[in-house]
Amino acid sequence: MKVKVQKIDGKASGDIELNDDVFGVEPRADILHRVVTWQLENRRGTARPTRERSDVARTGKKFGPQKGSGGARHGDRGAPIFIGGGKAHGARKRDFEQSLNKKVRALGLKMALSSKAKDGLVVVDSLELKDAKTKALKGLFDKAGWNGKVLVIDGASVDDGFSKAARNLPGVNVLPAMGANVYDILKHDTLVLTKDAVEKLEARFNG
């Protein structure tokens, strides 16, 4: 698959051949759904449990007189009716982590990249900025026609000036090539890859 390469200002900068094994896979909704669900579930924190009666270390010695109180003679300070006792019917620990086969994860990422290659993929030669200002970057994005939510994936370490300027633009996110994931790719309208990011993504699957 051949794709045109452009500069960050939208000017043409040649062509690049994309590997069909990575960018030419037919997407399947069930695979993408499994991978996205796996990612989002693993981002959730563990639901913290409360300490119940058996989890509280309190004395089991009977307190109060045997006679004359008019009530039962309790023998457990850990009972829920006492201050410092365990909670009755408290929240239980819940862990949301799921497991997913590595081959399915890799296939899902290929399908996400392929879906953007059909519609919404832009390849640029580099992300270097002469004027690392948010206003200047916004002008370049408008000139290139990158509207809506834009995900930028860079192969090398992201240029510090570009990263700081992009941070101030709503709907724009920057990720390294090794941090590319299905959920972030699919939820953005435009995917911008640098040429070295393309090489790293292809090497990630071929290595």
Which features would summarize this protein structure in a list?
6-stranded mixed beta sheet; rRNA binding; 7 helices; Ribosomal Protein L4, Chain: A; 207 residues; 2 domains; RNA-binding; alpha/beta
What does this structure look like?
The structure is a single chain. The chain has 207 residues and is of the alpha/beta class. It has 2 domains: 2-45 and 97-206, Ribosomal protein L4/L1 (Ribosomal Protein L4, Chain: A), CATH 3.40.1370; 47-95, no CATH class. 35% of the residues lie in helices and 14% in strands. The protein has helices spanning 20-23, 29-43, 102-118, 134-144, 160-167, 182-187, 195-206, and strands spanning 2-6, 12-17, 121-124, 150-154, 172-176, 190-194. A 6-stranded mixed β-sheet has the order 2-1-3-6-4-5. A hairpin with a 5-residue loop joins strand 1 (2-6) and strand 2 (12-17). Helix 2 packs across helix 3 (102-118) and helix 4 crosses helix 5. The protein is elongated, with a radius of gyration of 28 Å. The mean pLDDT is 87.
